[in-house]
């Protein structure tokens, strides 16, 4: 094995020495950035709805939409971060710039929540009217939140990719280490979330939000300093250009030749890639094959290389086809994250109205999501230690395929919404019998555990299934983009939640002066909203089954290895 890594360079731009760069130590520094990003983002998101309602005096539905729009924007901006990393900055600079933006946004939020001038007057329980935050106060809050969203989006698109850059896939030992990196990456995400929903939420409620957000800001600054300390130890991969540009080249070339007929012999289509890096031609999306038809004017000035906007290789066309095949699966996973959004919005509002005392200790409403995160960790442990070995004995395969994991996640989240509807019916009956205006209803908050646990267990399956699916079924040069595509399902899930909330408030009209999502949820019909999500989940799952059946995984002879990470071992993904 060579002392240098073939496709990587060091910080000086020279071939990377495998003995001095890469490996677990630099990868761990990258994980440090991710755990602090997760700590900040989730620490803000899970308890933001109570701040907006209790301190800024905003209506219930408006508070929920602000939270889901904030989270949706953060994940949607991952596409921007991926584009900048692939086209201009590279992953290292992208992480550095957006981590600084995240720290700036968190620092601004610390100041915003600490200054009385940026909050409306305090509202007492006996007050009939509470003055809501004015436009200036909300504007400053929005600026802080969306700086954080920008930082989060830029980081998420590059952190996992830069971490895997520290391992050489051509070295068997490092390839095995990279497998463990994926497992530990998700564990670090879960640890960050667990810390956010326990320690950080407690500090927000009992000590002060400014103190909690200040901790996030300081921890992010420390993580950035540590990240910079590893500059000389990192391996850097050269950018191969923006995959978005490559996709548009194929689409434009095919559009220009839309009136031409694809030759019967596909061997006549243009292909210049070496045999070892070619992707076999497939019959799906044959309209894109026209981009590989050689026509007059494709070569300019006797140049051996064609104009990429006029003529593309079969391999480039097949890469675009591979991305197109992901879209149906992508679309049918969005609703899961809509259900997920309810766990950090309306479910937290439910918890705020219920009995939360355990002895003398009162559980913060936002900390109920600890059961959500615990479900994820428990699911992963049970899957790794029990389900995978059992499945190996019964089926001869090391665990479920990526598509099977996604299916399980969709089923569990739909069940979670069904249970949530039943629990809310119980909570509303208690509110009706004891009084809708009392601050704490005589019903235990632990009734909410099943919905948190089911949706959390669903995330344990669907997150790893989606990540596996989008990475293994995408072209090698488009993995950053496919990761961004995966993250957009989270973004759109939150946006769909905001859209549904707005529609429901308009359509349901008045119910004795209150709609389904009334400002005081004790007067609403949140159970009907949860029931609607459960019905939509059933319909979505049927559509997913059709899409999963239609999907054709990459052929085993494809130039790009179809591998997925499972329990630290590299195995072939049969889907």
TrEMBL record:
UniProt superkingdom: Eukaryota
A GO biological process held by the record: oligopeptide transport
GO cellular component, one term: membrane
Subcellular location: Membrane
Membrane topology note: Multi-pass membrane protein
Parts of the chain that traverse the membrane: 62-83, 95-115, 135-155, 185-204, 210-230, 326-343, 363-383, 403-423, 443-463, 484-504, 529-551
Pfam families, alphabetized: PTR2
Coiled coil: none
Gene3D superfamilies found in the cross-reference section: MFS general substrate transporter like domains
Gene Ontology MF, one: transmembrane transporter activity
Keyword terms, alphabetized: Membrane, Transmembrane, Transmembrane helix
Similarity field: Belongs to the major facilitator superfamily. Proton-dependent oligopeptide transporter (POT/PTR) (TC 2.A.17) family.
Protein's recorded name: Oligopeptide transporter
Species, as recorded: Solanum tuberosum (Potato)
């Amino acid at each position: 094995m060579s002392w240098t890594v073939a496709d990587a360079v060091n910080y000086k731009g020279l071939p990377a020495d495998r003995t001095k760069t890469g490996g677990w130590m630099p990868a761990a520094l990258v994980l440090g950035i991710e755990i602090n990003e997760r700590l900040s983002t989730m620490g803000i998101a899970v308890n933001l709805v109570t701040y907006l309602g209790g301190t800024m005096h905003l209506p219930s539905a408006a508070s929920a939409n602000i939270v889901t729009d904030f989270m949706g924007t953060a994940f949607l901006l991952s596409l921007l971060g991926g584009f900048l990393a692939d086209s201009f900055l590279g992953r290292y600079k992208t992480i550095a710039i957006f981590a600084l933006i995240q720290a700036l946004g968190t620092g601004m939020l610390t100041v915003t929540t600490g200054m009385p001038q940026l909050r409306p007057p305090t509202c007492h329980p006996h007050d009939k009217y509470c003055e809501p935050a004015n436009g200036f106060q909300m504007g400053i809050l929005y600026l802080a939140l969306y700086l954080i969203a920008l930082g989060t989006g830029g980081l998420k698109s590059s952190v996992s990719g830069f971490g895997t850059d520290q391992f050489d896939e051509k070295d068997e030992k490092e390839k095995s280490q990279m497998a463990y990196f994926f497992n530990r990456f998700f564990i670090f995400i879960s640890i960050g979330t667990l810390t956010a929903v326990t320690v950080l939420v407690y500090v927000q409620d009992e000590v002060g939000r400014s103190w909690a957000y200040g901790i996030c800001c300081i921890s992010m600054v420390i993580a950035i300093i540590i990240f910079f300390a590893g500059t000389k130890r990192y391996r850097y991969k050269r950018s191969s250009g923006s995959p978005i540009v490559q996709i548009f080249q194929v689409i434009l070339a095919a559009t220009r030749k839309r009136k031409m007929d694809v030759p019967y012999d596909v061997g006549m289509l243009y292909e210049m890639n070496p045999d070892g890096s070619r992707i076999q031609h497939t019959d799906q999306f044959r309209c894109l094959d026209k981009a590989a038809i050689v026509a007059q004017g494709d070569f300019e000035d006797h140049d051996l290389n064609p104009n990429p906007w006029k003529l593309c290789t079969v391999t480039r066309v097949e890469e675009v086809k591979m991305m197109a095949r992901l879209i149906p699966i992508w679309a049918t996973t969005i609703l899961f994250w809509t259900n997920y959004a309810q766990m950090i919005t309306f479910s937290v509002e439910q918890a705020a109205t219920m009995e939360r005392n355990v002895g003398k200790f009162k559980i913060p409403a936002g900390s109920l999501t600890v059961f959500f995160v615990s479900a994820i960790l428990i699911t992963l442990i049970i899957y790794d230690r029990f389900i995978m070995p059992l499945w190996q004995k019964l089926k001869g395969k090391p665990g479920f395929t990526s598509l099977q994991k996604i299916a399980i996640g969709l089923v569990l989240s739909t069940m979670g919404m069904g249970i949530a509807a039943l629990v809310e019916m119980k909570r509303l009956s208690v509110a009706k019998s004891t009084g809708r205006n009392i601050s704490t209803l005589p019903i235990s908050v632990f009734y909410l555990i099943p919905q948190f646990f089911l949706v959390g267990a669903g995330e344990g399956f669907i997150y790893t299934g989606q990540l596996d699916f989008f990475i293994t079924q995408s072209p090698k040069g488009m993995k950053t983009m496919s990761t961004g595509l995966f993250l957009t399902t989270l973004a759109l899930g939150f946006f769909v939640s905001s859209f549904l909330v707005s529609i429901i408030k308009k359509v349901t009209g008045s119910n004795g002066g209150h709609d389904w999502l009334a400002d005081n949820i004790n007067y609403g019909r949140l159970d009907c909203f949860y029931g609607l999500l459960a019905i939509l989940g059933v319909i979505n799952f049927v559509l997913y089954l059709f899409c999963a059946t239609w999907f054709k995984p990459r052929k085993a002879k494809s130039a790009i290895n179809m591998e997925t990470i499972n329990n630290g071992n590299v195995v072939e993904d049969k889907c």
